[in-house]
Amino acid sequence: MRERKKTVRLDKKNFDDIICCPGGAELKRNDLKGPLDNTVDWRAYMIEKGMEGIIEYDEGEAVGFVEYMPAEDVPLPIIAPGAAVLMCFHWVKPSMSEKEHLNSERELVKKAVEMTSDSFTGMATLAWDHPIHFPISMMKALGFKEIEKDAHLSLMWYEHEDENVESPEMFETEFEPRDLSSEGKLAIDQAYSNRCPFSINNSRKYEKWIQEIDDTRIEHEIYNIDTREEALKYSVSPWGWEWLFLNGRRIETFRLEKEDMIENVKKELERTE
Fold this sequence. Notes:
By secondary structure, this protein is α+β, with helices and mostly antiparallel strands. The chain is 28% helix and 27% strand.
């Protein structure tokens, strides 16, 4: 008889069980395209760099996970020497209500905070001004303090007892998207990360759409944001590992449809004439 519920530590033998890796619960309910095995390779590299976490199982299937790692190597633009940084967490179970889903994710983060109490000065993370996606309200309920805000993002901090250390800070924006309009060209700067199957899927989709436009005035560059070095080098505001700029103008990628992409590109091309 299979054990109904089980919590295990993330390690080199089980990291590919995570729900957003091929075969996982997240991908089973989403038709995503592209080299999704890269999510496994990325986690193998991150574990070598010190990533830790837990995986939650229900009746033998992984349904939730949380990942964190030392701030010195984390692929996020957070400066927090001696601290851990909460990276990603998610729970997938279609039968759950939104409240139950958030409760399950909150318990995952709570366990991660507890796991870092002996080895780190505290835990930093980025949270969203959103009701269910990495919500600021959840972090506050767990005892995190809001340190600084950038649009929808907030840098949050949980300090372990008696540490009395400096609060974390965000790395200053560094990347400057290209603007080739003065040359009669359209620079398209696009970023994605192999940490996330949705990001991989979106990157391949945008690339295909741009190729279909088939205009010699377009100069398209794609940037990987997989490592700490890349996270700092390609830092934008508000931060994200997936972004899109057309001649320096940022395009919202959330639920971006093909028609919207083509319209935006054509408008920018008209501005170069």
